[in-house]
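Input record (one chain):
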Amino acid sequence: MLRTGVLAASTLALGLAFVPVASADPVQTVAYTSADGAWPLQGSASYRGPGDEIRVWVNDDVLKIDVQSGFHDLRVELSAPAGETLHPGAYPGARFRLSSEPATATPGFLTVTGNFGCGDDYADFTIDRLDQSADGTVAALDATFVQHCGTPDGPATHGEVHFTA
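The corresponding structure, as predicted from the sequence alone:
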């Protein structure tokens, strides 16, 4: 009986030694794929920190995602409709809005790369996770978007962001 107890304890200890430990490493990825004719993002790209610099923050109720990869840059801005703050959920019918402009009845969306943007964005975005500290620093973000430039049924760019600080 003693041997069974020792064997069970040894097996339990061995099993615990192989339990994966949660990684504290940050996750920082931004990726997109654009249909032919989409603007301003074209083709596809995938960025990953720390090799690519990815920053996520909130300024004046606008969620900003910046990517710097060598000589390539990308910015995506997401904002809630007037009177709301961003939170996890779906934001259909987003329209172009500069962060310096007042909020409107629709969610706001902006994407810029290489100093080119679309001044007539039609977008839908979903925030699956948005964790912020008390000072407003973004600790985690999981979001996806679909963007069309110039017309709601034009060529689409599909993108996603996964970020933990």
